[in-house]
Amino acid sequence: MRPGADVGIRGFATFPAAMSTAPNSPADNPLREGLTARPQPKPCTVVIFGATGDLTMRKLLPALYNLAADGDLPPSTAIVGFARREKTDEAFRTEMETAVRKFSRQTVRDELWNTFGKSISYNQSEFHDDEGYKRLAEKLDQIDAERGTGGRRLYYLSVAPDQFGLIIERLKKFGLDKGKDGGWARVIVEKPFGTNLESALKLNSVVAHAFEESAIYRIDHFLGKETAQNIMVLRFANAIFEPIWNNRYIDHVQLLAGETLGVENRAGYYETSGALRDMIQNHLIQLLTLTAMEPPTSLEADAVRDEKVKVLRSLRRMNSNQEVAANVIRGQYIDGAILGKAVPAYRAEPNVNPKSETATYVAMRIFVDNWRWAGVPFYVRSGKRLPKSGAEIAVHFKPAPSVLFNQSGDSSNVLLIRIQPDEGISLRMQAKLPGGALRIEPVKMDFQYGASFGRPSPEAYERLILDAMQGDATLFARNDEVEEAWKFVDSILNAWEKPAKDQPPLTTYPAGSPGPVEADEMLARDGRAWRRI
Fold this sequence. Notes:
By secondary structure, this protein is α/β, with parallel strands linked by helices. It has helices at residues 54-69, 89-103, 110-117, 130-147, 164-173, 197-208, 226-236, 267-292, 301-314, 321-327, 449-453, 460-470, 479-496, 517-525; strands at 45-49, 78-83, 120-124, 153-157, 185-189, 216-218, 250-258, 328-334, 336-338, 341-343, 361-367, 377-383, 390-397, 414-420, 424-432, 440-448, 506-510. α6 links the parallel β5 (185-189) and β6.
């Protein structure tokens, strides 16, 4: 067991793992009889830096409330908001109640909120102000004495990366990087974790100055989604898949993360990020590693992450502008329409440079150069202002020989793993239409989490926060994972940042379209086509 873990590893659960007697509990669902209950974590104090920000209101506080509603959060757990704005405990509680009522996946129950709300307090301070950390230390000691949180502290850095160093340095200065009285201290770090390899190395060094690697949780909310967690179960618990999960039977794999939204109010961040840093370097490459990895020796966090790192080290590097141009298409949306509503071009969005070269769409052909995947392309794409929002992994198997059935079109089997929305898995196969004529059509075997288990899947942040409380880092990125992913992406960024005449071209696509025609042409040259969005 890893140092500091509170309970045994449960790894990638197929189902929402906690059992409770709360309303809508899995224990009340006859479909879930016989499942093993997940031990509740020990109570701790959750300190949220940047507590007045959008992420806290939309995701973090609703996640903590839903954990309480499901019976997974120890009642004595405390929540402390740490931010610059002046406000009282009561004002902060009121703001958080409004946010939870608006964004919670469950209806807020007044009697539960009355108890849950009492666990919330506020610590006003600038991130660089020593006095604020002295007050925080006193508050945490007081909470330990009053609520029995046992010196266990979980710090959530919901702040810009340039604030990490300030906060980490002061946590260490005032002894807050360690638990008290036999407790522990852990830190959750939000993305983006660096903007390139050099900055990621610096950030890793900053965080490691105060916390052991086993106490650092680099969060990627995609990995908290139920279907993403189920990839390992699908592959390694089903004998029908693993024997054919290789280049003998799989033709190619497509990974998609698309959204109908534009840049919205994030131009300041997105102008320096773009689709490659924002979505592919972390979310989609993480999903690729789960799809391509070898079976781990156990479900211990490091055993799983060791196999993911091996995949990252096997990604074929693009070492020249020509290789980048041949394997990566970058685009930027121009004016168009989404669901019949006209939307402006990216360069016409508020606070965007009218001459911006930021890519809002990236499509890539990636090869994993190892024994299992030699020759199998992984086609990855992500973009804004696409026709639909969603994320999926589509495994395209090689077609059966056409000796018996001379079929036209794509007759291959496709295993589709839907990450969001409508989390689930479907398998496309060929079947004969009823009637005297021999006519073959594709049909689907479909599984949906909500329909099969009688309740919606927990939100990703619920699972990830609970894992951090448990001391289970399986779904979080390790330092070498982050660095290896940046090594792969850096070669592409370097090509894009050369003088304009030497750069691979930036193309355009109308908002509401599936992306640039150049991305279609890249697959067409391989004799393949993108799945329809």
